[in-house]
Write a structure and sequence with these properties.
Layout lengths: L1 H10 L2 H18 L1 E6 L6 E2 L3 E3 L4 E5 L7 H13 L7 E6 L3 H8 L4 E7 L7 E2 L12 E6 L9 H11 E8 L11 E2 L6 H8 L6 E2 L4 H5 L5 E5 L7 H7 L7 E5 L3
Parallel strand pairs: 5-6, 5-8, 6-7, 8-9
Antiparallel strand pairs: 1-2, 3-4, 9-13, 10-11, 12-13
Amino acid sequence: MKSIISFVIRYIPRPLLQRVSPVIMKVFSKMNSGTDVTCPVCGHSYKKFLPYGRIARSNALCPNCLALERHRLMWLFLQEKTDFFTAPLRVLHVAPEHCFIERFEALPNLDYITADIESPLAKVKMDVHDIPFPDNSFDVVFCNHVLEHVEDDIRACAEFNRVLKPDGWGILQSPVYPIEITLEDKSITDPSERERIFGQRDHVRKFGKDYAKRLRKSGLLIEENHFVKEISPAKVKQYALPSDEIIFVCKKGN
């Protein structure tokens, strides 16, 4: 199973995966019934979540809503640390995740806009380097696992800063590796070499521990939030959360 999932993720185009995955996962959902783990996003329980990743991680993917460890953590953060589910908010969600879209669209308090340059799940076709919305348009911006793909991550973050309202905030997640300085070399264009150097065939950089400091160059204020450390070990296990994931919360800066 792990090797099959790893192959599919590496070589099947993401837009196609986004279309067919929900249907395929319904089969695995029925085969994996149990109560050992629970997805806080959709409320379904299983004996174990499915493996996921290029180097497949065990107990990662909810077969019902397709939430991964980081999505489950973000959902809990939004519930416990923000007014996302109750306040009237205008939200820009870049590269929207399948597990969130219908749930966020159903919230009556949100004016919820999904956008991406290629995702079939997004309603607005948009390049993050040139966001087609006026200054101070959004209360909230989400952009998860995108900045490692784009040509200029600092310019993209400057655009997020521009479109956020003065009291706006957001979450900007990316894979962060245990290296001190972000590794970037724009001369590397071969997909196999990008995978070897940056970890994935369509990544153009490998973010290091300087991730927050780097993104602050855009004008955004970035906080490194260790919310998962506030959650009991029992709940971390029950929800299969990432034990060391930092949530990078941004606020509008100058």
